[in-house]
Request: fold
Amino acid sequence: MFSIADLASEFGISTRAIRFYESKGLLSPERVGATRIFRRRDRARLLLILRGKRLGFSLRDISDYLSLYDADRNQQVSLLTAKVDERIALLERQRDDLETTISELREIRKLADERR
Reply:
């Protein structure tokens, strides 16, 4: 069993962040009075949430994946694969846009240097 402070310390996040994830339905710790009690399952879910955020997934995407946490493994893999493919496509489009912008800025810089 873990307290909210234990998890916050372990993952280097604030207790407020954990309460936020709870308010969004991503975590559901047990309560003893006003005290939240997190189990290993909650810890694993928090780890998945933080990994998802680090990879740029939205809370909605993370929620979709977590909803399958106890579901069939094939469903989990299919959803994850689809979300990863979407994310890769988005990042590739952003990279292409950045490369185009950099190229255009270099051309502007070249023209400016020629006018000196």
